[in-house]
Every structure is written in structure tokens, then in C-alpha cells.
Amino acid sequence: MMEDISEIINQLGIDRRIRLEDIPSIDLYMDQVTQLFENTYRPSKRRDEEKVLTKTMINNYAKGKLLFPIQNKKYSREHIMLIQLIYQLKGGLSINDVRIVLANLNDKMEKSDIELDPIYQHYSDLQDRQVEVFHVAVQSLYQDVQSELADMQGEHGGYLEQLLLVTALIQQSNMYRRLAEQIVDQMGERHV
């Protein structure tokens, strides 16, 4: 199954994201923003009918103060970067937690107290390294699962391998999410 797991990882599209160089230097209308996200993430969707980003989502982000104010119905490079961050964060955090994480950054953006390009580049560089770490970690986890099942042979071996791998992956996901939530709680306490 290791070949299968490597193939599955490759199909996930976890290395897909809007990079700094992909963001136009001109402001975009909402349709252009949704198209940019759709074009970037289409290959990594679980199901074809899923929407990557909709107008409603963007409007909700703006209304929920996840983005600093939009000017003339156009989205700047900085808005695109923030929407990318929201897109990633909402996969593991509640919208309220995302708001807490981005509140300070949005305040600074609105006051022009910070330049987002270098921060976004660091984010992108970290994501690249995390993809590499993920490949190695999943292979190691898979080997652990095989070691656990070494004494079990027979017709249920494939299913049990998948069962243990899924539960172990979810356990890791839960641990990372809980750690992120604890950090968000600390951020919320400081921002109040």
C-alpha cells in the first residue's frame, strides 16, 4: 500500500497555493478573485462539485471583519493574501478563531503599519517545507502501522492497515488542531 499512499499524497495537491508571484499587481473584482482561487485549487478538491471560494464566502469574510475594508468593490494584493490565509486557516479553525488570528494583522493593514508581502513569503516558504515534512511523516507513520500489524495476517490485513492509518492520521490532526486552538486562545487574551 505504500505506493498507494504516495500516490494519494501526490493527488492531494497539498503543495497548491496562491504564491506571491501569482497575485496580480492590480486590484481585482470579486469574480476575478474567485476565479484565481478556483484555478489554483481545482486539482486539489475532494469532489468536483465543491466550490473553493464563493462570492458569499468573501462577503461573509468582509462582514465578519476577517478582512480590512474593501475599496470600490476591488480586492488588493493584500486582500488576496488575507483570503489565502483565511482559506488555509478555516480548514482547521472556527471562523471566530480565524478572526482572532487575523485581527492584529488586519488592524495593522488598515493603518498601513505593516507590509504583508514579506510575511506572506515566509508563510509560503514554511508551507513548502511543511509539504516535505508531511511526506516523510506519513511514510514513517505508515511504517509504524505496518509494525503494529506485523503479527496479523489474513484477509482483514488491508482493511486493518487502512483503519489504523486513518485513526492515526486523525489523531495527529486533532493534536495539531488543539495546539493551534491553544495558541489562538492566547492571541485572543492579548487582543482583548
From TrEMBL:
List the protein's name. Answer: Uncharacterized protein DUF1836
InterPro entries in the record: DUF1836
Q: Name one Pfam family in it.
A: DUF1836
